[in-house]
Structure formats: structure tokens, C-alpha cells
């Protein structure tokens, strides 16, 4: 009896809607997510453009960096489901602290910029993006990761300041990376960067980091709405695994 109860607690945090890790719905979500991510990566290979032969490959795009982190998150999540590993489950939750807010940021930035002016995100030389691929690149990852957080994960316990620092590191790390790629390629992956001066780029990346931090807070609030949060311990700096 005690062993059965302990096993259930391992698979389901008190503030977690559905059982995870598990070989049921949790594994299904992670497997379906990985299938979509694999389709996206295959699309890059089978529909090449000049980015394929440039320095940095498609990893110049924040979308693909986010997709890679999402893939790592779901690979670890599915591995936890199949092995019932509490340690892998904790690693998945730690990765989610970065990947879920990042994908929310990517989705918000992409669709808003595209609505304003598609030329801000699509270079003149880029072929039209297939609608299904567009959806798998710029919507499915955020939907899948938010679903994983809300229904198959314990609540975030990362505090505001560590969340902001993490977001700033990601934002300015990406800026340094695309500048390095520009040094070799002589073009930016997103035409938007060509239109901005240095101060405007600083504003863009600071704004993106703040947006990602806000997304982390909103996701935590949504988790509380879906799962209840009365007994959630006060967030502590450095505790990002939902333990």
C-alpha cells in the first residue's frame, strides 16, 4: 500500500494535473511533439536554401534554436516516460524552464512581426514557407510545451530575478551568435536586424528578455489556475526543477 502510494507520488506531483512520467498520455504528447519536431528538421534538409550552406546553418534562426531545445526537452521527457525515471523527469522540468517561455516568445514575435510586415522575417531570397511547415515551426512547439507544463509537470519554482537573468543570457547570447554568423556570411538571418542600429538592437533584445521573463510568470500563473496553487512553496532562487 505504502509502496503504491509512493509510486503514484513519484509519477504525479500534488499540483500536477495528470500522471507523468507515464507510458500513457504523457508519452503520447512527447512522442507526437517529437514527430512534429522531426518533420520540421526534415523540411530544412529537403527544402534547402542559401542558409544551408552558410556559417551556422539554420541554427542562425532563433526558431531553430528553440526547436532544438524543445526537442531536447521532449527527448528527455519521453525517456522519463519509458523508464519511469524521476531523475530524467526532473531534467525535463529544468529544461522546460527555458524552452517553454522561449517558444512562447518565438511564437509571439514571429506572428506579430509577420502580421506587421512579412519582409521583417522573410528575406527576399527565401522561398515561400509551406503552411504546414510554418505551423510546425512557429506554433506547435509552444503549444506542445505549454500543454506539457500545464498538464504533465509540477509548477515552476524559479524566482523573478533568476528568470530575468536566464532570459537576458539567452537574448544577448543569441545576439552575439548572429553577429558572429554575420561576420562570416555578410547577411543576417532575419531582415529586421538589417533595419536596426545598435541601440535599437539592444532595445529589441532587452524587450525580448523581458517578454520571456513575463511569459515565465504567466505560465506559472496558468499552471496555478489549472492545477491549483495554494500549497506551492515560495519560489527560491536556483530551484528550477519543480521539486
TrEMBL record:
For membrane topology, the record states: Multi-pass membrane protein
Which InterPro entries does the record associate with it?
ADTRP_AIG1
GO cellular component terms, semicolon-separated: endomembrane system; membrane
Q: Which organism is it from?
A: Cryoendolithus antarcticus
Q: Which one Pfam family would you cite for this protein?
A: Far-17a_AIG1
Bilayer-crossing regions = 27-46, 58-82, 94-112, 158-178, 202-226
Name the chain's protein: Uncharacterized protein
Question: Where is it localised?
Answer: Endomembrane system
* Record flagged with keyword Transmembrane: yes
Presence of keyword Amino-acid biosynthesis? no
Q: What is its main location?
A: membrane
Q: Which PANTHER family did the record assign?
A: ANDROGEN-INDUCED PROTEIN 1-RELATED (PTHR10989), AT02829P-RELATED (PTHR10989:SF16)
Q: Which UniProt keywords apply?
A: Membrane, Transmembrane, Transmembrane helix
